[in-house]
Amino acid sequence: MFQKIPIAQELGLQQEVSGGERMVRWVGGETRALENLSDRMQVEEAAFRRGFYLPNQSLPDLLGPPTSQSAALRFGCLSVRRFYWQVHDLFHAVHGGEPPASESLTSQLIWREYFYTMSLNNQYYGEMARNKICLDIPWREEGSIQTDLDMWKQGKTGYPFIDAAMRQLLAEGWLHHVGRNAVASFLTRGDLWISWEEGLKHFLYYLLDADWSVCAGNWMWVSSSAFERLLDCSHCVCPVSYGRRLDPDGEYVRRYIPELRNFPVEYLYEPWKAPLEVQKKAGCIIGQSYPERIVDHSKASHKNRQYMEAIRTSMVSSQPPHCCPSNDNEIRKFMWLPSECADHICI
After folding, report:
1. 301 DSSP 8-state letter
2. SUPFAM superfamilies, from UniProt (predicted)?
3. Is 78 annotated as a binding residue?
4. What's the burial of 1, exposed, middle or buried (CB within 10 Å: 0-12/13-18/19+)?
5. CATH fold of 122-347
6. Is the pTM of this model over 0.90?
7. Domain 28-101 CATH assignment equals 1.25.40.80
8. Whole-angstrom Cα distance, residue 194 to residue 189?
9. Phi, psi of 234 (to 5 degrees)
10. Is 42 known as a binding-site position?
11. pLDDT tens digit sequence for 228-283
């Protein structure tokens, strides 16, 4: 028995990453959750008055403190019903009782409840082979993945946006939704062709808001293993152009990858293209101070798409059992890929 609330070290937990700039200090409890919700409602109201909603999707802020309420929801500090109705009540107040133009106003909360429903009475929901709603995709064999998997986990893939996101996860236990989609796509069907189960285990260990039902559902979705008609998503995230769109000045990358702090922005997302003199001036030699790419994205994404098409062709006549409620528009909504911002998508 502890006489007071124990600290992490008293439970045998040690900080794995030290130093660096931490974006936020997480505080639990309902009081703080309601304070954060009030701050979030101010962000939502400003967006409503400017004529749009889902500000965390439309204008994702990678540098500021998180406005997501997922951790509070995960630990029961905030009621999902309260969050849902407060957003809708606020929208009606701003727009004089008019209903929202689409269901997207609180779609992420709906997805959360949907994933809970899909995991109900399915003890194998977090794995592939015995999971009836998941496609059995022949990912790379376990013996061949460890080096690439370790580089992905450590934020040493050679792709700065991917690495910044993975290092933020290690340092803070947090990652914005757009970052989660990017690193998940990179690990699975986008680049490394490694099973989503490996990514799920890593996220469940490090994410502060890790929720088995939601986390596994997200991984199945992004890897095209479930919640599509049948491997019908031709989009994968380009780790170069996607990073440039979300972080055009490179502030996010420089925060979590100090090796690249002095790199000029024109080479920041493709440092392997920088001339040696530029690398020397920046104090970062690629292959020494910062790793070379572990994979060529343009080649890997093309090859992986061919894999997907071949698997789809082999399955299409047998109609394998899996959960598939989506269409192309739903894919874009879930991946937060606006139609006007498609330059970072590999098709």
Report:
1. H
2. Cryptochrome/photolyase FAD-binding domain (SSF48173)
3. no
4. exposed
5. DNA Cyclobutane Dipyrimidine Photolyase, subunit A; domain 3 (1.10.579)
6. no
7. yes
8. 8
9. -90, 0
10. no
11. 665 555 567 899 999 999 999 999 999 999 999 999 999 999 999 999 999 999 99
